[in-house]
Design a protein that fits this description.
Oligomer: single chain
Order of helices and strands: HEHHE
Largest sheet: 2 strands, parallel
Structural class: mainly alpha
Strand order of the largest sheet: 1-2
Number of strands: 2
Distance between the termini: 47 Å
Low-confidence stretches: none
Shape: globular
Number of helices: 3
Length: 97
């Protein structure tokens, strides 16, 4: 992690450690906006990470439905759509005997 990444994530980490715990959870998205911003900066670098983090904050508003929104892969601007697991995806066979 380079120095610019550390400088950009330091205020977000401060918010996560000292300010956020004083308020009840209210983010409409998973992961939270601050976690998303830190991850975006680490994955995409400072410029694109800040753009993605800012766009995420703008989308987190009372009129947004929210939901699962992960950081996109390197080279992409939008993440793969989240597909909720179904009962068929869960292995129900037990190996305990």
């Amino acid at each position: 992690m380079n120095i610019l990444t550390k400088l950009l994530t330091a205020p977000i980490r401060f918010y996560q450690l000292y300010i956020s715990p004083a308020f009840p959870p209210r983010c409409r998205y998973y992961p939270s906006c601050s976690t998303y911003a830190v991850e975006a900066i680490k994955v995409h670098g400072p410029i694109k990470g800040l753009i993605l983090g800012t766009y995420r904050l703008l989308r987190c508003n009372p009129w947004s439905l929210g939901g699962v929104d992960h950081v996109p892969d390197v080279g992409k601007w939008k993440p793969k759509p989240y597909v909720r697991p179904t009962d068929e995806d869960v292995d129900t066979t037990s190996t305990d005997e």
